[in-house]
Queue: 2 jobs
Job 1
Amino acid sequence: MKIVIQCEAFDLGAEVDAMRRGRTGIGAIASFIGLARDCNEGSGVHAMTLEHYPGMTEKALAALVDEANSRWTLLDVTVIHRIGRLLPGDPIVLVAVASQHRGEAFAACEFIMDYLKTQAPFWKKEATPEGERWVDARASDDAAAARWNTP
Amino acid sequence: MKLRVLYFARLRERFGVAEETLDFSGATAADLVVHLQSRGDVWAEELAAGKAFRVAINQDLVALDARLPEHAEVAIFPPVTGG
């Protein structure tokens, strides 16, 4: 398991190679990359700054990876989230999940992203032509996380 | 009890403070919120009933009825928007 908060960009290919190197028991790796968009809520966005809560962020990400491990049989998980100033097109977040079969990898990757969106203490501030503004949380993100709640 | 209270993102900017140490006599996160509201102005506005904010105690998200342990690190912040 690898969880990293960093300012620098990441390389999906390098992360996946590191995950599978020497491990021939892995049959599937699903990955997700979130990117900074150039527009949001009807405004152009020319930069964004990501703030986080050092200490809690790492703890929250570890907890949601543990939860994914308890729900599915996973062989490895990598989560990398960037902080600081990002430009449109820049990658923000990477989640990669390795398992024996694709079903677990796809499901766990989506689960981790859905929970990250509502549980991990990151905040985005966008720079727009009208000035800077904090991004508001979306109800659709809460709904996406809630669908993983088992009755 | 002594508490270390942290604020993040929009709330840090609006309150004009990132961190403070409080000597506080309440028992729960809700008591702390009421205490902060009593400062008036932006504190009353941002922490009013119906406003969306989150509270963490020792780096775990909690409900407002959570009890505050001695020397707790309490954080108050807007709903998260990472990913």
Note: The interface with chain B takes residues 34, 50-53, 55-56, 59-60, 81, 92-93, 113, 116-125, 134-137 of chain A (CB under 8 Å).
Job 2
Amino acid sequence: MEVLFYIAAAVTVLATLRVITHVHAVHALLYLVVALIALSLIFYLLGAQFAAALEIIIYGGAIMVLFIFVVMLLGPLAVEQERTWLSPSAWVGPSILALVLLGEVGYLIASGDHPTMAVTEPRQKAISIALYGPYIIGVELASMLLLPGLIGAYHLGRRLSSEARSC
Amino acid sequence: MLSTPALVLAIILFGLGLIGLLSRRNILYMLLSLEIMLNAAALAFIAGGARWGQVDGEIMFLFILTLAAAEVSVALGIVLQLSYRFRTLDADAFCEMRG
């Protein structure tokens, strides 16, 4: 377990370093996805399976897709740029890091060593009860945050399209 | 226990995000650095929850996730607006407010 944690931590730090030093936005996003997946493995090793699943689904899925949409919208996609984005060297780094993570997950599945699995079911139940018990104010505040977020994103995107049409 | 190395990793990730936020002038990379810092905070909460065996850490992670989703949707809309108006993503170019 400890070795797996340290390998995943090394993958996270390396990928994060590449994120903040890379000049190509799409390459940086690739590395950030790898860092998020490694972080999700760390969450799993810490015994938070639910958080690990949410990290992959919402961070690695939804939020990164938003980022990639915006990067694609920002500039006209020149063929030359597309070619540099799809160059094999761009894929080597993230692929190696992701393969390391895949090996770790394969080892976890093969070894069957899940010390946290025994307490999984009551833990999810406890999360749900606490979320809608003492933390109900937090849930309400989160919903009050999400609605202005939705309206704000709609407003900003809408003004862009109408002004672009008038110009 | 893995909590102490996890907290050290959270500190390292937060530091990397802060360095990226301060050193990069491209507003998209500044947003990415903010995401890294939010993730480091979430990792610290998860490590704390794992250390004490409580579920509060994971609940705070849920709230951080909600906050990140709302923040990213609005911030990316602002990025699109800025890139449309100024034709650049350089944060130093957005100096109209003389801040």
Note: The CA atoms of residues 85 and 155 of chain A lie 31 Å apart.
